[in-house]
Amino acid sequence: MALLGFSTGSVARADFRAAVATLRGSATSAIELSALRADELGPLLEAYAELDLSPYRYVSVHAPSAFALSDEPAIARALLPLAHRGIPIVVHPDTIHQHALWRPFGRLLLVENMDPRKPAGRTAAELAGVFAHLPEASLCFDIAHARRYDTSMLEAYRILSCFGGRLAQVHISELDSDCRHRRISPAAIRAYREVSALIPRHVPVIIESDVAAGQVDAELAAARDALGWNRPRRARLDRPGIARRGGASIGTLGRARRNCA
Amino acid sequence: MALPQQLTLPVDPPSEVETLAESLRAHWPSIMAARVKAQEQLVFLRSELDELIPHSTNMVVFGSLGRYEFTAESDVDWTLLIDAQADTQHLDAALAIERRLEELNVKKPGRERTFGGLTVSHDLLHKIGGEDDTNRNTTQRILLLLESVPLGSDSRAYDGVVNNVLKRYVQEDVEGAGLDSPFKVPRFLQNDIARYWRTVAVDFAYKRRLRARSGWALRTAKLRMSRKLIYAAGLLACYACETDAGSARPHDPDAVLQVVGRLRQLVRQTPLDVVARTVLRYPALLEAGAGLFSAYDGFLALLGEGESRRRLSELRPDEADRDPVYAKVRDLGQRFQDALTRMFFDADTPLRDLNRKYGVF
């Protein structure tokens, strides 16, 4: 069964407990615990052991997306124990300034491609620069960010072609003109299908659309549709073995398919 | 213009021309000098103008600068390409760029100016064909693909528009015409490039009549050389979709994007690099290629000499037969055409068959 679920931030913003409760009973097998603001990280880490995450076969944590440069060592130190337990940590490349702090995360550091407003990590070429400093890191491919950067989906295709071997997680949603996460529209579904064959079915997919409790099932269906999961896939892309909760099997594929610098 | 000390020259464009020159042991001083001069000019313009270019737009330069064929006499034709939400500040930005260019004494294009001001991506993308696809829109679209360079803090607007325009062409062939594979010559694109070339040639005669033959000789030189080069490079890029397919899988779900990506790589090169790349690929073209580049080098040398260029700007048709500068233009144009004929029609390469199949009908 494919690994599909929500980011807690998409369901209940900073209230991860409410999000976990809302998602209980939904047809999800994956969850991303979101601490997008730095002050959300402490409470999340404190509560982590008490959260009932038993319904999920894949759990990741999204690191804060903005913080002071001086806070970077403390944030990296706080997250590292999770990585030691096999929990993938999603990071925005523009928050990384001291690469040495993040190298110990190895493959469990998931670098996310950025939306066009950000200064780095938006394209395959920019990501190549990030991975040059973090050679073991994996990729969290945000398909909405890639589409917002280039609506032709060519940049999305390039990122997946260049770094498919690093692909460990996917973010899916739709971005509005202010780059806010919205529900996936039919136009976005058509666009995402153009590259969905490059996303192996075993890669966990996390929905980031801003949804109300009553919209969870519909958004799951839209995500499946966008990923082409309702259609037969080509055998070459169905590769087994990817992250399981508590495991460390991320990135079992080749690490880099071509030079994309 | 002095190159700011703190800036380094960009490494682009990746040069097939240099590789070909080495391979042929040829020396094309004017081509090489024009490339260096273009790089210097782009560095200079970026340092002076980037701060004026709004986010989600790019200033795009065309013409000799877009082809990396800049000489001391070249002007700068440009537009502010918008791929963003409507914003009243876009026009202000375009006017500010124009003022700064005047302050910098950058030479303006004359009446030939195709661009200037604002260009909105939607017309380029959605008005391909049909009554609303004006000469100007077609020209802007094709030159955006074949001889343009973006300026700005990044190239997102430019990349997005070029990628989408290319995708429009490829997708239309596959989905609209029901092709079984996108790894073929993209006819929609090729026809539009051919339409551009024929339009330029027809407009040449129109302008000659309209403008009482003013600037006729210079336009003739450009038509025979740089305009024709663009057409040849466009054809070669289209043909490469079929010749470079290799072991491509036509039924891959991402096949269209594979072809769009390939075309994007090709049109990112200068027209001369596209030609050089083809010559390097097929040894049977080496001799013709040497002739073509030698003629083009002579053309750039001529345009870079202020006196020759001025003579061509002022020459009347009835003086042409006895004018030594125009005699050079005629000779260079003939040598360039001979080389193209050998490349496209005579040499034993796949180009000959592709040209038979797609070039005319």
Task: Report what the structure shows.
The complex is a heterodimer of chains A (261) and B (361). Chain A is of the alpha/beta class and 261 residues long. Chain A is globular. In chain A, helix 9 packs across helix 10. About 9% of the residues of chain A have low confidence. In chain A, strand 5, helix 6 and strand 6 form a beta-alpha-beta unit. Helix content of chain B is 63%, strand content 4%. Chain B has a 4-stranded mixed sheet with strand order 3-2-1-4, sandwiched between helices. In chain B, helix 4 links the parallel strand 2 and strand 3. In chain B, helix 2 crosses helix 12, helix 7 packs across helix 10 and helix 9 crosses helix 11. The longest helix of chain B is centred in the middle third of the chain and has 28 residues. Chain B is globular.
Summarize the structure.
Chain A has 261 residues and is α/β, with parallel strands linked by helices. Chain A has ten helices and ten strands. Helices cover 34% and strands 15% of the residues of chain A.
Topology:
The complex is a heterodimer of chains A (261) and B (361).
Chain A: E1 4-7, H1 8-12, H2 16-23, E2 30-34, H3 38-47, E3 58-62, H4 72-84, E4 89-91, H5 99-102, E5 109-112, H6 124-133, E6 138-142, H7 143-149, H8 154-163, E7 167-172, E8 174-175, E9 181-182, H9 186-196, E10 205-207, H10 216-226
Parallel strand pairs in A: 1-2, 1-10, 2-3, 3-4, 4-5, 5-6, 6-7, 7-10
Antiparallel strand pairs in A: 8-9
Helix pairs in contact in A: 9-10
Chain B: H1 16-24, H2 29-49, E1 57-61, H3 63-66, E2 78-82, H4 89-103, E3 118-120, H5 121-126, H6 135-146, E4 149-151, H7 156-176, H8 187-210, H9 216-243, H10 255-268, H11 271-281, H12 286-304, H13 306-314, H14 324-346, H15 350-359
